Inverse folding.
């Protein structure tokens, strides 16, 4: 494999991997079933090499732009060491720690690049002396700057990974960790393999809903772990909604003290949020916050009187409230302050504004809203009022240098937004409509995993073809990715994990891998079964796909 | 006089609903420092009764989950008296004293569960119990849950956890569908090859004799019987690996195809093997019932086999393979009868036998089948409407709740033959990762149907808040019970 894949660094994080792994799938007693999601190009040989935790090190290459002190990779090294050697203990004598560095790096070093590259090298030697087991290899991983695409290569004397960004390096380490396996005697091996890799879509998200049920921070962190194992890179945090407002705002503390299920135990403090964001970052996962309005805001009204539209019945207020009141200047002042806070708390350059399922009944019933409609010349067209509202919110977030994402319901009205398609039916028709308008789109419709169904439904989520619509190359590039939605009506920390995994992993492969190589459910099935066992081994409560067993069953009971 | 409406955190009640329940808004503080369970002086059971000694300990922790040996205060002290009574089990709580009268120790365990659900905490963490009078007894005597440990292996810990949760909902039968086609995890002392060759893994995916004993004795302390099922002649693929010659070789075009069908009913060796196996099973599992399976026998392989056909001729069965099946089951029932066990079979084979109890499992008009069985004078267990392994939205609980097991035309005498019902949790898509949320709280809805008076529990709307409250209690007890709908519990699940 000597494919050179030049990448351009766009405005988004790209984790483009170019992995040259020399590893065997078919042979050996416990051959690797492969990597999930499937790399773009994968060749392996039956030749296998022992890997010994005593002699295994990740080391930054001398010329690497990233060096020790790079917190993302320092942490990733530590984390992946434990994932690769789950039963590692510091038993053996230190004399086995012979590191022999590879002196010949396949270089082509160019000078500075604004991108970080890494070179992951595996150096081996036969340590017949110093009391070390003779047939062990020692492993060192170097990171060097490379102006070639990300790649990882493992052979008898060498393992190398080139990644353009640290995030790519993290994905590469995940790939590497899935290639190491244990035989029946507990020894670790890795086979000769070559891999080229990069993601098909740049946006690979999972939505969690923390309003319909509160999810303890620990449940979110665990989900981030599992997301990284499947190479998801966006955590879409649908943090508030009608039932509760668990986000503790520093500007408007009443929102959670009055709008959360419980003001102390069922909230996310500023430090909780920071913890989630920094934890996600170390896995190369962005946190995309959603503050959905003007609908889905019942809980907001408790802590912010005057924000919601009072509904009328028979000429008098009925005591109930509808969507955010779009007729009042105070609404936009409030939103500006709230989103100013949100923008600084959540560093991601995107913010999700929601905009879905706005019910016009309450607006229509309210005389002040109707007067406002007249004044604005909207006549009786409440979609114009909705558009007006969203336009204002988009202006607010634009001024804060954030790009807005909205649900498909309100895409018609705006040119500066990215659109998430969520409705069932002919979702590709809608995708086509959006890209024809020149907007970028995220597809969620086929991946509503909160809908209960048999686990073997994984195939339904797998056999989705996001680009199977008539359109130009240019238009198809506007489909930037997809998202698994895990709404919270019937989901909380008790069932989140088995409902999400391994079905979300099926989506992950659709979003990461080459479609032609991953079109067969039958071929994917044993690989996904194997991957699910890896998830169990890593403590993820992933439910079974069908009858069978894993060497290490789930132990967290 | 129910005090559900009063008090800051009033009790939502008991699940499953007791037969008679009266409570007053009057509440009494309960302090873990001063709380004791004591055997009544005239009680037949006294200290040393392991079931109640253990139950006392266990329920103390369940009632006071955050008990620490803090401040003794000016609280009333509580003593629970157990006295032998020849009246139905009843529980009465008044100031400083609660007394539980139960006819059996098992009734006492159920009563302790009821009591534990009556104690609640206010916002300051103080415990209270309201003045309450309860008379209670179960509507059906058989309230079971089936776990399938063949399609997926369930670690012993997962079984024990399920037993805990069963006790909280007053289930009393653990139907252990221990072996089936995919694997044979039961480690037989007579035939060790069955698991060493038929389990998913001969060391890590088996139930040793000591595992089985542990499950049985753990279940017993909760008042739960363990009903073993060794399903035959179908569903036995895994048996064949460790017991060559047991299964019927299938033929294709006059020669053996290399595949195997159900147990071979034509060979005397089959019955010798079964006699020895069931002899072991009878001594390992003390319950007086044994489940013989008998479901879904496919006749294709028997029909293809020339030896089986010869045997059919010899026995005068002609071409009627149901007669062969009946002959086989008859033989197995004879074996278990000789071991003083009563046999239970799936509905598929009920036609042929008079000494069995029948479990109705097929979908469709299951009450028609129930009626058919009781008309034949046999006892019946209903499982059809309660296949909880079938995935569906959680709010399906109402579907499981609104089942009326006796809504068929029949005499009082016949209706008495419906001895209970069972939740089936088959293992195709279920293992330790998703067993608990798939089972609870939906199985609790079934529990109320099987325990409580039907007239008092016919409304889904009335049951909903009580079940929500009960589900929060399950979370508080560490049971990973999934939510019924949007909302929250004071103590969310922490086991992540």
């Amino acid at each position: 494999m000597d494919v050179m894949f030049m990448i351009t660094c766009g405005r988004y994080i790209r984790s483009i991997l170019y992995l040259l792994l020399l590893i065997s799938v078919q042979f050996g007693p416990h051959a690797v079933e492969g990597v999930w999601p499937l790399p773009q190009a994968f060749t392996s040989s039956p030749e296998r090499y022992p890997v010994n935790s005593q002699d295994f090190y990740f080391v930054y290459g001398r010329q690497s732009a990233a060096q020790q002190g790079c917190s993302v990779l320092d942490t990733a090294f530590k984390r992946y060491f434990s994932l690769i050697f789950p039963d590692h203990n510091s038993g053996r004598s230190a004399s086995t720690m012979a590191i022999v560095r590879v002196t010949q790096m396949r270089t082509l070093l160019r000078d500075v690049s604004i991108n970080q590259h890494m070179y992951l090298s595996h150096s081996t030697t036969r340590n017949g002396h110093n009391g070390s087991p003779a047939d062990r290899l020692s492993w060192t991983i170097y990171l060097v700057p490379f102006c070639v695409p990300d790649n990882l290569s493992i052979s008898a004397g060498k393992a190398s990974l080139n990644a353009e960004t640290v995030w790519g390096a993290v994905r590469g380490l995940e790939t590497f960790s899935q290639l190491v396996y244990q035989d029946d005697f507990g020894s670790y091996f890795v086979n000769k393999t070559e891999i080229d890799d990069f993601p098909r879509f740049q946006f690979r998200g999972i939505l969690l809903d923390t309003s319909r049920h509160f999810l303890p921070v620990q449940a979110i962190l665990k989900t981030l772990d599992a997301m990284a194992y499947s190479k998801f890179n966006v955590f879409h945090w649908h943090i508030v909604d009608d039932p509760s407002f668990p986000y503790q705002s520093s500007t408007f503390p009443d929102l959670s003290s009055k709008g959360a299920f419980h003001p102390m135990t069922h909230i996310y403090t500023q430090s909780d949020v920071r913890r989630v964001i920094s934890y996600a970052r170390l896995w190369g996962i962005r946190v995309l916050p959603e503050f959905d309005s003007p609908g889905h805001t019942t809980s907001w009204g408790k802590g912010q009187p005057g924000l919601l539209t009072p509904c009328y019945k028979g000429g008098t207020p009925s005591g109930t409230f509808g969507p955010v009141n779009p007729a009042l200047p105070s609404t936009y002042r409030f939103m500006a302050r709230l989103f100013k806070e949100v923008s600084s708390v959540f560093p991601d350059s995107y913010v999700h504004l929601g905009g879905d399922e706005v019910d016009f009944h309450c607006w229509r019933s309210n005389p002040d809203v109707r007067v406002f409609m007249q004044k604005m010349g909207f006549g009786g067209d409440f979609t114009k009022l909705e558009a007006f509202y969203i336009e204002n919110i988009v202006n607010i977030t634009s001024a804060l240098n954030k790009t807005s994402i909205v649900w498909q319901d309100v895409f018609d009205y705006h040119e500066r937004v990215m659109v998430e398609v969520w409705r069932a039916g002919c979702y590709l028709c809608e995708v086509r409509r959006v890209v024809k308008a020149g907007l970028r789109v995220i597809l969620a419709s086929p991946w509503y995993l909160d809908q209960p169904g048999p686990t073997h439904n994984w195939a339904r989520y797998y056999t989705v073809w996001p680009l199977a619509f008539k359109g130009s190359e240019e238009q198809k590039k506007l489909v930037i990715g997809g998202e698994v939605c895990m709404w919270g009506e019937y989901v909380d920390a008790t069932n989140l994990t088995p409902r999400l995994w391994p079905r979300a992993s099926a989506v992950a492969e659709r979003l990461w891998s080459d479609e032609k190589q991953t079109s067969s459910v039958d071929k994917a099935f044993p690989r996904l079964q194997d991957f699910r066992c890896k998830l169990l081994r890593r403590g993820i409560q992933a439910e079974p796909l069908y009858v069978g067993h894993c060497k290490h069953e789930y132990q967290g009971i």
Remarks:
- Chain B has two domains: 20-136, 142-477.
- Residues 1-11, 69-77 of chain B have pLDDT under 50 and may be disordered.
- The first strand of chain B starts at residue 20 and ends at 30.
- Residues 20-136 of chain B form a domain with the Chitobiase; domain 2 fold (CATH 3.30.379.10).
